[in-house]
Each structure stands twice: as C-alpha cells, then as structure tokens.
Design a protein that fits this description.
The complex is a heterodimer of chains A (592) and B (173). Chain A has 592 residues and is of the alpha/beta class. Chain A is built from 23 helices and 17 strands. Classes of the chains: A alpha/beta (592), B alpha+beta (173).
Chain lengths: 592, 173
C-alpha cells in the first residue's frame, strides 16, 4: 500500500443495483484501487431508492465531503478511479444531477433512513447510527406497557395494506394469556407479493438490523421469546443479508437468551416462503409457516389469540417494524407530528410504470399524488399525458388524472376506491388501456386465489373471461353491468382480503373509465391502441418507400406491393402481430 | 387410499432417481413439525424439480399423507413437478413490466426458443416461465436467467441475450 488517503468508495448493491451492473462496477473499482496501490476501501450499501440512476457509486473523501456518481458504466468506473488517484478525469459527467440530489432532500426518511447509507452487512455501522439504542437504553428504563404506549402515541398503523393500528395488535397479543408452554410469537410478514412494490426488499437488503430491532421491541412489549421472518423465496439477497444480520446480532448479544443483561430472551429465525400471493394474508401466512397450503381461515380467533401453532402471535410487515426503532428513539410525538389527522408518520412508496424517476420514496403522509408523481417522480416518461395511477396493487384501484390532487392518507385514498396498500404506485399514461389493466389484475388474482371460497375461485375466473372477451373485441351489451354485479358478489362472498379486494381494479376502472369499456364493447375500439384484436394496421402510401422489408417479415404474407412502390396490408389476412410496424424504418405503418 | 403409506405397495416409477440423495435432509428435519415446505425446497435444490416418486418418498419418510405432500407441492409457484432446461428464464409479468411491454418480450422469447411456457427447448438449454413481480420494477421490463437479471429489455435485446447464451454453450460443448 502506497498511501492511506482515507477515501471510501460505496457501491449501491440492492437487487436493482446489481441488476444494473453494480457487481461488475464494484469489481472494476476494487481492482483499479488495488492496482494503483491506494489504501481505499470499497464497501457495499443497500438501495438508496433512486433505481432509475443505478448503478450508484458514492465516494467519501477524506475531508468528509461526498461525491455521488450515477449510471456508472465501465468507462465511468475508470473516470472515478482517475479522480481518486488525483489524475485528470471526466468523472464530472457521471455526477448526480443537482435536481436528483435535491430530490433526496425532499424526502423524510424514517423506515429507509439507513438504506443506501450504511453497509447492511456491518452491525457496527448500524450501531454508529444509534442502532440497538432501544436495547441498550430503553429496555432498561421502560416497561413493556411503556413501549406500547409510545407506539400508541405515534399513531403507527400497519404498512402492509390494511392500516390497522399497530399498538392495538401488540396490546391484544400482550393481553392474551400465555399457553402452558409459555410461548408467544412475533412474526414478520416479508412476503412482499404485491407486483410493483419493493420497499420491504429495500429494508431487508439495505438495513436488516432495523427490522431485527423493531421485532425485538415488539417481542419485549408482547412478552414473546420467539420470532420468525417469513421472506419470499424470490428475494435471495434479502435472505442472505438478514441471515448475516441475525448472526451478528446473536454474536453481540442483541438476540439470544439474555439480551444485554436484561434477562429478556428473544430468538429469531427465517422461513423462506415458496411463492403464493395469498400468504400475505396473516392466517394464510401462519398456515404456510406450519408447512400447509397457504389458505386463510376465518377470524376470530385472531392471531393475537390463536396464531402460529395456536399460540398468541403478533404479525406486522417489514416496513412497520422498521419504523419502530426510530419511534422509540425519537418518541411517539415526533412520529405523530408528521402526516395527517388519521394517518401518522411517513410512508414509503414504490414509484414505477410510466414515470421518469422510478424508485423508492419516503414522504410524510398527507402529500398529494401530484407531489409524488410530478415532484419527486419527475413526471411522466416522454412527457406524455398522465392518465391514472394504480395504488395498492391488485387489491387497490386506479386513481384517475382528475383526482391527482387527492391527499395520500388512508381515508382519502379509500374514498376514491383505491387503497394505500403496501405503497405500490404504478403510473400509467395515455398509452395504457384501462380495460387491459383491469384484465391484467384479474388474471393475477385469479391465478393467486387459493380456491377456498367459491366466489373468489370461480367469480374471478368469470370476470377474467368477460374482460378478456371485451379486450378481444367480443364484448357484449350488458357486460359492464355483469362485471359490476359479479364484483359485489365476490366482495361479499370471500373470506379473506384477497377475494374481498380482487374486484377493486375492475370497479375503479368502470367508475372512472367507463367510456373506455364502452368504446371496446360498442365501437370495438381501443383508444390506447393496446388491445391487438381491435387494432387495424395500414400503410401510409406517402411514407412508404417500397423497401419490401415489411412484406418479407410478415409471417402470414398479408403485405403485398412492388419494389419501390407503396405496399398494402390485406386486413382479412393480417393477424395484427405488429411485426411490420416494428421493422418499418419510415414509420409508414399506421395503427388505428 | 389406505395403501398410500404402505412401503410395499409403493413402486418407483423412474428408477433413475437416486432417492438416497435426500436422506440427509430428511434426517435433519425428522420430527420437526411444519417442515414440509422446507424439505420440498431442499429437495428441489438437489434434484432441480420434484419428481412424483420423490414426493411419495418424502410422504413415506415423514409420515405426511401423500395427498398432502402433493397438495403443498402444487400450491406454491416455486415448486416444479417437471424438469426444466439448463437455463431457467423467469419473465417478469409484474404490473410495471406489463405497462412497459412485457407481453412483447414474451412473444420474442417464445418465438426465439420455439417452445411454450414451461417446456424445455429440444437442445435442453432453456425453459421459460412467466412469474409475478421480480421486484426490479424500475428496470422494467425485466427477466432473470438463473441468478442474472436483465433489465430495460426490448424484444431484440431479449433475442440477443438468448442467442449469446446459445453461442456460449455451443462453444463450450
């Protein structure tokens, strides 16, 4: 080693960063630093939430200043190395744009406070951020009742979807009498199955100790000595980092039989899920933990009375637990000071779809949807027109453009027909067909229905058939009414949240985009040009140069024409595969 | 069927499957309540899929009814009862990918491989499956091949990726 210049290079390695090539960049940086003989460490951090800028590399300079480089490719890594070595470089072009850097400051980070900041594989870095302070300090001065009182004061509600007050669940589990063997469980639902939501993964990958500390506090409040984290098998990196964190916490005495000399004991283990959306429902999750098919059961008894192995159990999701250490360190009032009358604190949203700056954002409750999409999210891709946002995944609903000023709050969102859900926000523009979206969600819930309740099992299937028919141009008069009627019956006839909420995407799209349904059914038209059977392909005679490429590529020989003469498509033969439009270099293929 | 758990009545349909491979796993979880899913996960890790013979063997050894073992194995999307190609392609069909054109990606993959979802290509190299969200929504549309994730796909990009793997395999063969 030539010198120790005290520089630290931090590479964002959440799943999204890795998918964008972070591992390769990190290897390049490590090699370059080693070859140059500089004593500079390259460390890992989790996802900072700016997924659209991945891979992200932070360089912490000896004077304490920080440079953030984004969309770093192999060339970028080379320029960063040059800058570390103090040579002339072009690293400037990789520096984070100012408005993106400011975007981060617009957020208030509680659950994601450490994500993308600390090394998730280092317990020391977590402790340096006041981690486990609740164990070393609070537990010695506060009774379990005090902890529940703080959570009650904070107004924290379940972040997984239903928004049930967290303190109430904890109190109920605490009040449940101990069974003979004295076992109560604390369970974490990390089966993040909602397509379009990935905040739980970010916490698990970026700050696993926050989850452990939150669960430990819940265990202390309830009087549970055993905990389980049920993680999706699709999240191998999250499982790896959590395993590592649990081992570290055990080694340091934050988990085990006598935690930090308090006499309180808590053990935590991981159970990998096997892929079933319905296991996000707490009784289904319990069934799955017991090795059964993940099918929900009737409540009551609630898990707080009879949960895992019939023992009193408390179940919260990852984001909920991750808020707990902050709340206890800063007090319930500090958390309650953020947000609105009936929705306290901050919430993490996963912004995806037709949005410029997709990723994770954490903001206080009570901001408007406009603030999120146009403020933090930077607006719609290619500046197209915003059409709707799907909130709450397949259980939620779409909120149309005219309601863009709706405040994000459990109650106001519910009034639109959507739900807060786990915080997934899928943004749609003018090219998204709302009937097709409804069909997409029904296809999902139909496949994921566990089959226990007839209305959910068969009803979703029938709704899907009707929606498919409509998108294929076979819609009939009365279909909209039939869908609405089925929707109500499925809601009433289903046992669990999956079935009860499955029709929401259909109901909200009918409510706000009835004209699109009518266009499909009566005019056989898809204005968003997404439903292929309703499209008509034609060639613009003025734009066509007669290059013959389309006719050569057409799989059904529907295109005819002489070389250098405008071609034509025979609509009777055309199968609307779109190949001609894909290959045409002159934009001569018109889709109507 | 009363005979289901009777060792004598049970015959191996495919003698090529080495059941003994699973014994250490079964020993580890012997008597551990609620470990069926974990056993199935480990079994799939060892064999690549869950042959029916193996399910029957698990039932026999754990004392769980065969119907229940099959019931659990068919309930969860992770479990496969059929073998897959050397490279398992997972095409994300999450909401964000759908909005950003995952249907066109599937068409390209199906066309390039020449097989339907779940089937193995004649050369034994690929199987593709549609999956719910992979959680890389900002890179949509996305697919995973083995442990590798490929983002911001276009139909052509997806084809190129598959061709590259094919060429690499051909070079190694």
């Amino acid at each position: 080693m030539k010198q120790n210049n005290g520089t630290r290079v931090i590479v964002g390695k959440g799943s999204c960063g890795i998918a964008a090539g972070a591992n390769r960049i990190s290897t390049l940086l490590e090699k370059g630093i080693r070859d140059a003989g500089i004593d500079c460490s390259v460390v890992t951090t989790g996802c900072i939430g700016m997924c659209y800028l991945e891979p992200v590399v932070d360089v912490l300079l000896p004077d304490g200043s920080k440079e953030t480089y984004v969309r770093v490719d192999a060339d970028g890594a080379g320029e960063i190395l040059k800058s570390i070595r103090g040579e002339a470089n072009n690293a400037e072009q990789y520096k984070i744009p100012r408005e993106d850097a400011e975007n981060l400051h617009k957020q208030t980070r509680v659950a994601l406070a450490n994500c993308g900041v600390i090394d998730p594989e280092s317990i020391d870095e977590y402790i340096a951020k006041d981690g486990y302070k609740t164990v070393t300090q609070t537990m010695k001065t506060h009774s379990p009742e005090d902890i529940i009182a703080i959570i009650k004061e904070s107004g924290l509600a379940g972040r997984g979807g239903a928004g049930f007050p967290t303190w109430f669940k904890w109190q109920a589990a605490r009040n449940s009498p101990y069974p003979k063997d004295g076992i109560k469980y604390v369970i974490c639902n990390a089966d993040e199955g909602d397509p379009g939501a990935f905040m739980d993964r970010a916490v698990l990958e970026g700050d696993p100790h926050a989850l452990i500390e939150g669960m430990l506090m819940a265990a202390y409040a309830i009087g549970a000595r055993e905990g389980v984290v049920y993680v999706r098998a699709e999240y191998p990196l999250a499982i790896h980092r959590l395993e590592n964190a649990i081992a570290q916490a055990e080694e340091r005495g934050f988990l085990g039989d006598d935690i930090q000399g308090t006499g309180f004991g808590f053990r935590l283990r991981i159970k990998a899920g096997a892929g079933a959306f319905v296991c996000g429902e707490e009784t289904a999750l319990i069934a799955s933990l017991e090795g059964e098919r993940g099918m929900p059961r009737l409540k009551p008894p609630f898990p707080a009375q009879k949960g895992l192995w019939q023992k009193p159990s408390n179940i919260n999701n990852v984001e909920t637990y991750a808020n707990v250490p902050w709340i206890i360190r800063n007090g319930g009032q500090a958390f309650a000071a953020m947000g609105t009358e009936n929705s306290k604190g901050t919430k993490v949203f996963a912004l995806t779809g037709k949005i410029k700056k997709g990723g994770l954002v954490e903001i206080p409750m009570g901001n408007s949807i406009r603030d999120v999409i146009y403020g933090v999210g930077g607006g719609i891709k290619e500046d197209k027109a915003f059409k709707a946002v799907q909130m709450g995944g397949p259980s939620g609903g779409c909120i149309p453009a005219e309601l863009i000023d709706t405040l994000i709050d459990y109650r106001t969102l519910a009034a639109t027909g959507a739900i807060m859900g786990s915080g997934g926000m899928v943004v749609m523009d003018e090219t998204t067909c709302m009937v097709d979206m409804a069909r997409f969600f029904l296809d999902f819930t139909c496949k994921e229905s566990c089959g226990k309740c007839v209305h959910c099992r068969i009803g979703t299937k029938r709704m899907l058939e009707i929606l498919t028919r409509i998108t294929e141009g076979e819609g009939r008069d009365g279909d909209i009414e039939l869908l609405s009627d089925l929707a109500v019956q499925i809601k009433d006839g289903s046992l669990c949240g999956l079935g009860q909420t499955a029709p929401n995407p259909v109901l909200t799209t009918i409510k706000y985009f009835r004209n699109e349904y009518e266009d499909h059914i009566y005019h056989k038209k898809c204005t968003a040009k997404q439903c292929k059977p309703l499209l008509r392909y034609a060639i613009d005679k003025d734009a066509c140069t007669g290059c013959t490429l389309c006719s050569r590529k057409c799989p059904v020989e529907a295109i005819s024409g002489q070389v250098k003469q405008p071609h034509t498509i025979d609509p009777e033969v055309c199968i609307k595969c779109g190949k001609c439009a894909e290959v045409c270099r002159f934009k001569a293929v018109v889709i109507d | 069927m009363a005979c289901c758990n009777d060792a004598k009545a049970w015959r191996l349909k495919d003698p090529a499957i080495d059941l003994a491979l699973l014994d250490p796993v079964l020993d580890t979880y012997a008597g551990v309540e609620g470990s069926l899913i974990t056993i199935l996960q480990k079994a799939q890790g060892l064999y690549g899929y869950l042959p029916v013979d193996l399910l029957a063997y698990i039932a026999l050894k754990t004392g769980v009814k065969p119907a229940k073992v099959l019931g659990v194995a068919t309930f969860y999307t992770q479990f496969r009862l059929e073998p897959v190609g050397k490279h398992l392609i997972m095409l994300c069909q999450g909401t964000a990918c759908h909005v950003n054109g995952s249907a066109a990606i599937e068409e390209a993959v199906r066309d390039e491989l020449g097989v339907e979802e779940g089937a193995i290509t004649p050369d034994g190299l690929f199987t593709y499956n549609n999956v719910a969200c992979l959680g890389c929504c900002s890179l949509s549309p996305v697919m995973m091949i083995g442990e590798e994730t490929y983002g911001t796909l276009t139909p052509d990009k997806a084809r190129t990726i598959l061709r590259q793997i094919r060429e690499k395999e051909a070079a190694n063969a």
